[in-house]
């Protein structure tokens, strides 16, 4: 077991170095972050300027076909990384199907288990494909190029009562622009990030837990101080998400908020200084932020 932990650590380091080797590649076009409309679940597809493809969460099994087609329509056959923020069904349900359609170079998921049928199916699917799970922790990062990295900044503790607080909190930094992806992280995770003085400042935040009032606290939002927010949530969902309290906090701080239940898939682009927002199948323009 000890040797296995060493080997896993070495492989993780090798994978990070492998991404770093792309520094010399020319960066063409913008960074694109696709918040795919998968109803009451999460699925974020990242296209980097140096042609790397990363999926953060895979939605529920109900939307696996939609996600597969979305990626295939872009000519994607390989994902350089798949990052699962935590093993709830609305984040892992699409994984088994996606494993049959795409080559996965590296797979990340927190160090925890979940006693559900879909989690067992996920583990079996990974074993069948001989895909190792990298259990990243706060302080790890994926250095994609000289100007682009994904930092694992949370969770900062190892044990929680609520599974959502095990969610990876990811900070994507591209030159002068930054994006905070909260998974389903809640109030406890947010409080610990603030207590540890983690740099959570970001231009755009993907609101945690689909906008439920389990997090997105006012102190945390003030510290992030985003120029815009994204909420991935479903239409007419039974949980009344996003919660009115969360929407009111965003309005109080005058943070423009874009929601997949109202706009469909949202695509955010960045050239490292300017961020633009588009929505829907025709990618209609919404807004542009300039980092001055």
UniProtKB/TrEMBL annotation:
<protein>
    <submittedName>
        <fullName>MBL fold metallo-hydrolase</fullName>
    </submittedName>
</protein>
<feature type="signal peptide">
    <location>
        <begin position="1"/>
        <end position="26"/>
    </location>
</feature>
<dbReference type="Pfam" id="PF00753">
    <property type="entry name" value="Lactamase_B"/>
</dbReference>
<keyword id="KW-0378">Hydrolase</keyword>
<dbReference type="InterPro" id="IPR001279">
    <property type="entry name" value="Metallo-B-lactamas"/>
</dbReference>
<dbReference type="GO" id="GO:0016787">
    <property type="term" value="F:hydrolase activity"/>
</dbReference>
<dbReference type="InterPro" id="IPR052159">
    <property type="entry name" value="Competence_DNA_uptake"/>
</dbReference>
<keyword id="KW-0732">Signal</keyword>
<dbReference type="InterPro" id="IPR035681">
    <property type="entry name" value="ComA-like_MBL"/>
</dbReference>
<feature type="domain" description="Metallo-beta-lactamase">
    <location>
        <begin position="40"/>
        <end position="235"/>
    </location>
</feature>
<dbReference type="InterPro" id="IPR036866">
    <property type="entry name" value="RibonucZ/Hydroxyglut_hydro"/>
</dbReference>
